Amino acid sequence: MMDKFKSRLIAFMSGRYGMDRLGTVILWVCIGIAVLNIFLSSIILYAIQTALVFWELFRFFSRNFTRRSAENAAFMKITDKIAAFFKLRHRMFRERKTHVFRKCPHCKAMIRLPKTKGHHTVRCPRCSDRFEVDI
After folding, report:
1. What is the mean pLDDT of the chain?
2. How confident is the model over 35-94, as pLDDT tens digits?
3. Distance, C-alpha 63 to centroid of its chain
4. Which end of the chain lies in a sparser environment, N or C, as judged by fewer CB atoms within 10 Å?
5. Residue from 56, 62, 9 nearest 30 by CA
6. What DSSP character marks residue 118?
7. Strand 119-123, strand 130-134: pairing
8. CA–CA distance from 39 to each of 19, 35, 72 (Å)?
9. What does DSSP assign to residue 43?
């Protein structure tokens, strides 16, 4: 009987999109709203949580791989930019005693320079533009 159930489940799930990074975030947001709703008992939070659960179930069981992949790629593009911003800030703080960070005036790339006092001419590794820096 278990083999019959397993084969039906596999047949049902074949061709479905399944979980991805966006789906995982949606489920964690739902869990957070559920915990918050324990203390607040808000009908609005309950409606938002229910809508998110149905949206995630729709995405999970969808057969439109290209659309779901595009949604996930757009989400990852946004979250990766945010993560890169905070990662750079963490690195700048961690290396604040030995290095300084300056932006290239031409291409706006962040350049890491050793913390040596004085007036320096710097070449940007991305665009090869030369500019003056006072440290």
Report:
1. 88
2. 999 898 889 999 999 999 999 988 888 888 889 889 999 999 999 999 999 999 999 999
3. 24
4. N
5. 56
6. S
7. antiparallel
8. 29, 7, 32
9. H
- pLDDT value of position 61: 85
Decide the pairing of beta strands 110-114 and 99-103: antiparallel
- The strand pairing partners of 112, in sequence order, are 101
Torsion from C-alpha of 89, 74, 30, 56, nearest 10 degrees = -160
Please state, in angstroms and rounded to a whole number, the distance separating the CA atoms of residues 133 and 115. 11
Q: What would the two tokens of residue 125 be?
A: 């590794």
User: Taking Cα atoms as reference points, which of 61, 65, 64 lies closest to residue 53?
Assistant: 61
Counting residues of the chain whose pLDDT is more than 70, the rounded percentage is 89
